[in-house]
Design brief:
Layout: E1 2-7, H1 12-23, E2 27-33, H2 44-50, E3 55-58, H3 62-74, E4 78-81, H4 88-101, E5 105-107, H5 113-125, E6 131-138, H6 148-158, E7 181-182, E8 188-193, E9 199-207, E10 210-218, H7 225-237, E11 241-243
Parallel strand pairs: 1-2, 1-3, 3-4, 4-5, 5-11, 6-8
Antiparallel strand pairs: 6-9, 7-8, 9-10
Length: 249
């Protein structure tokens, strides 16, 4: 039985993870952690003093995830990170710490198997198109922009070529930000925040005479739970560092 703690247990994703861990015959929920709760642990440290934790699943805030991960990796707690907003330098440090302490760490910008397949398809398509942009659409309570999924998608696509703006004319933004943010290999990412969305992403590829769009839409947060359990089971049995659910699919 895998002993699981959930950090951010009162959030929308956290509640789903709690239910999923309780329903799975291979996992046991040993701690619910949320800074805003009255009847739960308020911190990982507090829960760790009382509970034996094999794997901690974190769906908290961009401002707290790095410190949470540092605590876990320095105290022998394997961690699955679903919180986005980590900087590249922070991810690199967590990778070093994971290896140094022989403690597993899995970071996934997206746990939906469909969204991960969308990223993998985009990586394949990137070999055959010289122009591409990404539009990501989320609910208006998401605090970081662009999304971790969009950043990861651009990173995967950048392995194919150095720029995705071939043939573009020199540009002048008459309104700052109109062309979105420029990421890896000059891929422009446009972030939409709107009530009604959960999470959607389009990757648009273009070449002379054709446009191809790869899109994934999330209608319910339950679609992430298969990936969360996959991550928990993998990291429980392994001490490696993984960035991206596609590495274990």
């Amino acid at each position: 039985m895998i002993k699981v703690a959930v950090c951010g247990a009162l959030g929308k994703m956290g509640r789903e993870v709690v239910q999923t861990v309780n329903d799975c015959p291979e996992t046991e929920l040993v701690a619910k952690i949320d800074i805003a709760a009255e009847d739960m642990y308020h911190s990982i440290e507090e829960a760790h003093r009382v509970c034996d934790i094999d794997v901690l699943v974190d769906f908290t805030q961009p401002k707290s995830i790095y410190e949470n991960a540092l605590y876990c990796l320095n105290n022998g707690i394997k961690i699955v990170i679903g919180t986005t907003g980590l900087k590249d330098s922070e991810i690199e440090h967590l990778q070093e710490l994971s290896k140094q302490n022989n403690t597993g760490c899995l970071i996934a910008p997206n746990f939906s198997t469909g969204a991960v397949l969308m990223m993998m398809f985009a990586k394949q398509a990137a070999k055959y198109f010289d122009n591409a942009e990404i539009i990501e659409l989320h609910h208006n309570q998401k605090k970081d922009a662009p999304s971790g999924t969009a950043i990861k998608t651009a990173l995967l696509m950048s392995e194919a070529k150095q720029t995705f703006t071939s043939g573009n004319c020199p540009e002048t933004e008459t309104l700052e930000g109109a062309r979105g943010g420029k990421s890896y290999s000059d891929i422009h990412i446009h972030s939409v925040r709107m009530p009604g969305y959960i999470a959607s992403q389009e990757v648009i590829f273009g070449s002379d005479g054709q446009i191809m769009t790869i899109r994934h839409d999330t209608m319910d947060r339950k679609c992430y739970m298969q990936g969360v359990l996959l991550a928990v089971k993998h990291i429980y049995n392994n001490n490696d560092f993984i960035y991206g659910l596609e590495k274990i699919m």
